[in-house]
Design brief:
The protein has about 110 residues and is of the alpha/beta class. It is built from six helices and five strands; from the N terminus they run βαβααβαβααβ.
């Protein structure tokens, strides 16, 4: 699974995920700091990357809006702010159990991934 990490995510997580073989791009690396939420999700979708963020409220609403309008996205994963070690374990579990295709237009809450 290919991930795009929002600017509110610790960049140390990206390095740790890469060590596990997960393809990760951060908003900082993409030069997209400060872009509106919808533009971040559009960028992720065009790049076929699942979007990971701690901005639960805004992206849950954006997902619902897109579903109502019949639009798709590459997937959204939402999480509370947690230690990098916890995020790494949970994201790794999700990335190795679901495919990129299974994440299409899906909204996942990371808390359910142990």
């Amino acid at each position: 699974m290919r991930l795009y990490l929002d600017e509110d995510v610790d960049v140390a997580l990206a390095a740790a995920l890469r060590q596990r073989g997960i393809d990760v791009l951060t908003t900082q690396e993409a030069g997209h700091l400060g872009l509106p939420d919808a533009d971040q999700l559009t960028f992720a979708t065009r790049g076929e990357r699942v979007f990971f963020t701690h901005n639960r409220g805004d992206f849950a609403r954006l997902h619902q809006e897109m579903m109502r309008e019949g639009r798709s996205h590459a997937g959204i994963i939402l999480s509370d702010q947690l230690p990098v070690s916890v995020l790494l374990r949970r994201l790794s579990n999700l990335c190795f159990r679901l495919t990129q295709e299974e994440m299409t237009t899906r909204l996942e809450f990371l808390g359910s991934w142990g």
